[in-house]
Amino acid sequence: MSNSFKEHLPAHLAVIAANIIFGLNFVIAKGIMPNWLEPRAVIFLRVVGAGLTFWIVSFFMEKEKIAVSDRWRLLVGGIFGVAINQIMFFEGLNLTTPINASIIMVAVPILVLIMSHFMIGDKITWIKTMGITLGFSGAAFLILQSGKLSLGSETFLGNIFVLINAASYGFYLVLIKPLMARYHPVTVMKWVFTYGLLFVFPASINKIVHSDFTVIPFTIWLSIGFVIFFTTVLAYFFNNYSLKKISPSATSSYIYAQPFIAAVFAMIVGADKPNLNELIAAVLIFVGVYLVNKPKKKSVNLFSKIEESSD
Questions:
Q1: Are 58 and 190 in contact (CB under 8 A)?
Q2: pLDDT tens digits, 249-305
Q3: How many angstroms separate the CA atoms of 244 and 90, rounded?
Q4: DSSP 183
Q5: Contact 10, 245 (CB under 8 A)
Q6: Is the model more confident about 64 or about 267?
Q7: Which of 233, 136, 120, 125 is nearest to 174 (CA)?
Q8: Phi, psi for 206 (deg, rounded to 5)
Q9: C-alpha–C-alpha distance, residues 278 and 3, integer Å
Q10: How far is CA 301 from the centre of its chain?
Q11: How far apart are CA 301 and CA 303, in angstroms?
C-alpha cells in the first residue's frame, strides 16, 4: 500500500460509507413515498433536519469566517447540490421507472470527469476514462438485471428531470471542491443547506402543510429518521469530507457501487439470490473504481539523482 493511498484512506472509507448509505436508501426511502409522505414533503424534512444538525454541531466548533468571495460558491452549491438535486430526483422518479433513474444516475462520474477538466483543471487520463467506462458498464449491467430500460414518451419528462439531477449533483461536487481546502466540512454543509432551504421552502411548504403526520406509524418514522440523519447528514458530510483529500472524479466513481450495495442488501433480507451476472457486474465495478482512484506514479528526474549521488 503506497504512502499516498494510506494518507487518503480515511477519505476513501468516508465515500464508501456514504455510498453504502445511499445504496440502502433506495430500499428504505421507497417505503415512505408516496403512501405516507409526498416526495417534496420528505425533501423539506431532509433539508431542515440536516441544516439544523449542521448548525448545532457548528456551535461546538471553532467559528470559521467565510470569505465574501466564497459566499457565492456556497449559494450556488445550495441551489445545485440541495434544491435542484433533490427536487429533480424525487419528481423525476415519480415520472419515470427506477431502472431508468438508476441508469441515468450512474452517468454522474462521466459528467464529473468532464466538468472537473473544464472547471478545476483535472486531467482526463486514459486510465480514468477506462475506469469510468468499466464502472458504468458493471453498474448498468447489474441494474438491467432487474428490468428493461424504458424510452417511451410516458417516461421522457421523468428521464429529463433525473438527468438534470445527475448533472446538478456532478456540478455541485466540482464546485464545492476548492472550499474543502479552506473550511471544515461542517461549515460548508451548514451554509449549503441554509442556502438550499431558501429554494426548497417555497417549492415544498405546501406539501408539508397538507401532510397528515398523525397516521404515520413508528416504523415509517424510523425510515424518515434514517433518510434525514444518515442519507442526508452523514452521507453528505462523508462525501464532502472525501473532497478534502481526493478528486471529484474519484469521489463520484463510488456511485457505481450503489446498485451492488442495494443488491447485497436485498440478498441479506432474503429478497434476492446471488448469481453469476451479479458477480461479473461486481468485478467490473470494483476494477473500474480502482482505476479511477489509482495513485499517480511520481516521475523521477534522472539528472537530479545523478547530482545527488555525486555530492
A1: yes
A2: 888 888 888 777 776 776 776 655 667 776 787 788 888 888 887 766 554 443 344
A3: 29
A4: S
A5: yes
A6: 64
A7: 120
A8: -65, -40
A9: 33
A10: 39
A11: 6
**Could you tell me what percentage of the chain is helix, strand and coil, using 3-state DSSP and rounding each to the nearest 5?**
80, 0, 20
Dihedral sign, CA of 181, 184, 189, 192?
negative
The grid coordinates of residue 57 equal: 454541531
Q: Residue 173 corresponds to which amino acid?
A: L
One-character DSSP codes across 216-261: --HHHHHHHHHIIIIIIIIHHHHHHHHTTTS-HHHHHHGGGHHHHH
Query: Which amino acid appears at position 117 of this protein?
Result: H
pTM over 0.70: yes
CB neighbour list of residue 59: distance below 8 Å, 6 or more residues apart: none
Strands annotated E in 106-154: none
**Which of 171, 11, 14 lies closest to 81 in space, CA to CA?**
171
In the block, cell 417516461 appears at 155
pLDDT at 230: 95
Q: How many Cα neighbours within 13 Å face the side chain of 266?
A: 16
Matching residue, cell 463520484 = 252
Look up residue 184 and give its three cell numbers: 471544515
Residues 6+ apart with CB under 8 A from 143: 99, 102, 103, 106, 259
Whose CA is closest to 164, among 87, 75, 278, 52? 87
Do residues 76 and 185 make contact, with C-beta atoms less than 8 angstroms apart? no
Q: Look up residue 243 and give its three cell numbers.
A: 473532497
Max Cα-Cα span within the chain: 81
Side chain identity, residue 80: F
Contact 182, 70 (CB under 8 A): yes
CA distance 214 to 223: 16
Length of the chain counted residue by residue: 311
Cell of 231: 442519507
Residue 79: how many other CB atoms lie within 10 Å? 21
Q: Residue written as cell 465495478?
A: 285
